[in-house]
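CATEGORY: protein folding

GOAL: derive structure tokens
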Amino acid sequence: MDNSICQVYEDEIQSLEEEIKLLAEKYEDSQQESTFFSDELLMSTKSFQREFQGGSKGHESPSDLKAQLENLETDLSFLMKFTGIQFTSHSKKTVEQTRNRTVRKHRLSGNCHSLSFQLEFQLLEMQKKENVSAVITDLSIIMESGEDSDVSKFVSSTEEHRNLLTFFRSLSSYAEWYEHRRCTFLHFK
């Protein structure tokens, strides 16, 4: 190879290394923002639950309900843009119901950036006095992971521990970096 071709490749490598460094910094910033927004969402959720449990029961007008629905749709849209996760379908079926215990089977499908996923889980809801607790009793995840064994291990571990929050957080990060890698490899083709 002559020196001009080598120099072109070295310049391209240096450019890609700088781009990777910038993306890594951007990722760190987004992780910090994510933590901030997660805390805010948690506080908002708790506030909403307190308001819902202690608020009026059946005294709201249709216009109030419509305004609440619009606010929830806005929040959902924000979350989908922020996390990259979009749900395409959801179904729920009651499997068992007693006075203070309900088991429901949920099916979710969607995508996160360019990765699609399907979840199936059973949710056991138990009511004790005025508190309701919910526990995931069975979880099955189907993902198009291709040949990536790390994703398969992660999915197996998540199914074993039945932790949906960890799954969605990790899926969001993985899918974002998966897109960056895909674009980088397309750059070389």
Summary: The chain has two domains: 1-53, 83-187. The helical segments are 3-54, 62-83, 149-161, 164-188. The two ends are 20 Å apart (CA to CA).
